[in-house]
Amino acid sequence: MQIWVPDVRSEKFAEEAHRQSAAVASSANAADDQAFIDALSLDEG
User: How many CB atoms lie within 10 A of CB 33?
Assistant: First the structure.
C-alpha cells in the first residue's frame, strides 16, 4: 500500500495553501464559517 501526501515544504504547497486560505477569508460566508470552526474547537476540558 502506498499513501501519497503533499510535500508541505514545497513552495507550490505554500502558494496553494495561501491561495485557498485567502479565498476562504474573503468569502461572503467567512464569519459563519469561522463561527462553525470555533464551535467545533471549544475546549471541553
Answer: 13
Q: Specify the pTM.
A: 0.60
Q: Which of the four pLDDT bands, split at 50, 70 and 90, describes residue 39? A: very high
Note the helical H segments in the chain: 11-25, 30-40
Q: Does residue 6 contact residue 13 with C-beta atoms inside 8 Å?
A: yes
Taking the C-alpha atoms of residue 22 and residue 13, their distance in angstroms, rounded to an integer, is 14
What is the Cα–Cα distance from 20 to 36, expressed in whole angstroms?
Answer: 18
| 13 in Cβ contact with 7 (< 8 Å) | yes
